[in-house]
Amino acid sequence: MKIHRAEEIWLIIGIAIIVISMAITGYQAFALGMAPPSGMEHIDPQKVDDTAPFNNPGVFQTGENEYEVVMTLQIFSFTPNKIEIPAGSEVTFTMTSKDVVHGFQVAGTNINAMVVPGYVQTITQKFDELGEYLVLCNEYCGAGHQLMATTIIVK
Amino acid sequence: MATITKETVPSQSTVKEKIHGMLGVNRQDAKLSLVLISIAFIAFLLGGILGLVQGLNRAGLFELPSWLNYYQVLTGHGVLLVLVFSTTFTIGYFYAAFSHTLGGLLPKVRKMGWAGLGLMVIGVVFVATTIIMGDASVMYTFYPPMQASPWFYVGLVFLVLGIWLYAFGAFINVAHWRKNHRGEHLPLLAYFGVGVFVLLFIGSFGVTAEVLYIIPWAFGWIDTINVMLTRTLFWSFGHTLVNIWYLAAVSSWYVAIPKLIGGKVFNDSLARLVVILSVVLNITGGFHHQIIDPGINEGIKFMHVFMSLSIGFPSMMTAFAMFATFERTGRKKGAKGLLGWVKVLPWGDVRFLAPMIAMISFIPAGAGGIAQTNNQLDQVVHNTMWIVGHFHLTLGVSVVVSFCGIVYWLVPHLSKRVLTPKMNKLGVIQTLIWTLGMIFMAGSMHIVGLAGSPRRTSYTTYGDNATALGWDPYLFFLAIGGTLLIIGCVLMFYIVFHLMFKAPKGETAFPIAEQEEGAHATPYWTERWTVWIILMLAIVAMAYVIPLVDMIFNAPPGSPPFRTW
Ligand code: HEM
Ligand SMILES: [Cu+2]
Ligand SMILES: [Cu+2]
């Protein structure tokens, strides 16, 4: 099997792209803490309303400039609906689904997570810019999927 | 590289086979392939019409009547195009290729082919009926705990059984050929076929297990289901499937195109290595559909970045081989200068133009794929319209336009007719309209997806939300693209059936490029399929055993069924 010199160079470039991709992704994930949302905690999807903290969804201050939003997703809404937080705060969303698979996406940010029944999913984001953010479900969840949205107001 | 045990020149075949080769595909085999290709393009037309409905709806231009639901339409679109069209075309194409290159299908295999078709038709009838009745608006991914009618899943079982029968037929035919041609290399196109059927067969294990698990739940015999397990099993198959179509398209780039432009196979050994790598590295890519899922830890997700990216390597080998073939052929025709060879290529010949456009489109499509496989970048675009733009480039252009390119010689070859200059011209127009439509549609899908517009969502402004209203101009371009596409779709439908029943009678050759004179012999280890399959299973085990065991033995309480549409 003979490989041309030019092809060798080309394939080395290919390997380099793969290696560099891995390095950047690994660095961001493990050194900068930017790994994708991977909630490992379990919950009984049929008992969400009776299980802490989801028996009391809402926005909670957890520190200076730190908030936790405990949220349930169900067809076709987010609870709590309408979230307000002060600018500059770091918000952790702790979420689970009461029925089918939903998606949690905040347009214009990197917040994007699948919310699967049986799991507690978390994602953290700092909100610096003032304004109204559109929160929407990005996984098809049924006839009213296109209505499943809310807003986060940063003021 | 590995030890070379025995070297032979692949094209050593007996005189008897040369005659067969000239005669082309056996008549009885041709009928099977023509029926499969007909079904493919009927599905293509129907799927295209549903696609237009979606495109117009999403742009806010068309409100669906009350008896038709957007998600029902989208389920139909996905099933028709990504399951029915691509499967039937690929099988029809490779069965013709086996018949042509291996000296006809064995009578037993031909029978299996018809039986496989029967099973697939039964499957499609079940699936289509449940979708039309509104009992299965669950998308082609049918994620539990959404639950369709049990007959939807039963239909899927029939579809899979049909595919398996075709895979067994392929293996039997190839084994028979090898028994009679000891020490010879399988013809390159048949070699691609083996890769495709190995992937179709082994790649469908995951989804088969999934469906067999869902069926008792769908009939109500078990109460709850393990959601993450089903998702993971699904994607081990879903991802493999799209790569199978790509591999089928690539086979025509390697084997037919050099012949059509008057060139030779660039490098037989490297082509076979591409097939091996595509088979070995494929199935594990499925995890990149679950990058932002819970229940899979960050370490495993990181390992899977590598698993997904590695498939880029054979793609780069293909890119090199293609452009090297063009350059070499061009120079032989007297082209000068760095890019002189570009001009001497037969741009006006649709049999070349179509696959060439397919290849070029794979450059941005592949680059986009490499980017979005990296975990944090995926998080930006996951489940947005960006992804829909991505696979309309990879599937809708690279694969579909390659398949259309195959049609222009395969259908007349099978129907004993010829491609007239007039049809060729119509083909060129079709190719350009389709490409332009996809540029509009996939282009705006990418942009609007980056802006946050979600996939699988009917027209909505989320209560006149300013962000959502900002997407409308792009969605309008999406609809323009969709309109061009439906014109291309109808044209292609006409062309296929014209070539099948109306074009002037005559002989059309099955284009199979030969090797360069004095080419290096292909090492015989490329024929060791057991080794490649073991290697593939080892990689699948590496990727899947830990997460699957964890999902099964460390599962949260299961989910009851929901019907939310
Ligand atoms: C007339 C041509 C076509 C048009 C106008 C069209 C349009 C669309 C649109 C607008 C969507 C996205 C809908 C949404 O997410 O809300 C979509 C989804 C999709 N399209 Fe197409 N498409 C066309 C051809 C094709 C072809 C040729 C293929 C593949 C061979 C294809 C495969 C798919 C798949 C797999 C989906 C995703 C379905 C899902 O999310 O479950 N489409 N198409
Ligand atoms: Cu939803
Ligand atoms: Cu994939």
From TrEMBL, chain A:
Subcellular location: Cell envelope
Keywords, sorted A to Z: Copper, Membrane, Metal-binding, Transmembrane, Transmembrane helix
One Pfam family this sequence matches: COX2
Known catalytic reactions: 4 Fe(II)-[cytochrome c] + O2 + 8 H(+)(in) = 4 Fe(III)-[cytochrome c] + 2 H2O + 4 H(+)(out)
Family annotation (InterPro entries): Ba3_CcO_II_C, CcO_II-like_C, Copper_CuA, Cupredoxin, NosZ/Cyto_c_oxidase_sub2
Transmembrane intervals: 9-30
Domain called Cytochrome oxidase subunit II copper A binding: residue spans: 55-155
Gene Ontology CC: cell envelope; membrane
SUPFAM superfamilies reported in the protein's UniProt record: Cupredoxins
An MF annotation (GO) of this entry: copper ion binding
Annotated CDD domains: ba3_CcO_II_C
Known function: Subunits I and II form the functional core of the enzyme complex. Electrons originating in cytochrome c are transferred via heme a and Cu(A) to the binuclear center formed by heme a3 and Cu(B).
UniProt name for this protein: Cytochrome aa3 subunit 2
Organism, scientific name: Ureibacillus xyleni
From TrEMBL, chain B:
InterPro entries for this protein: Cyt_c_oxase-like_su1_dom (IPR023616), Cyt_c_oxase-like_su1_sf (IPR036927), Cyt_C_Oxase_1 (IPR000883)
A cellular component annotation (GO) from this entry: membrane
Coiled coil: none
Domain Cytochrome oxidase subunit I profile: 31-503
GO biological process: aerobic respiration
SUPFAM superfamilies, per the entry: Cytochrome c oxidase subunit I-like
Pfam families assigned: COX1 (PF00115)
Protein name: Cytochrome c oxidase subunit 1
Organism of provenance: Ureibacillus xyleni
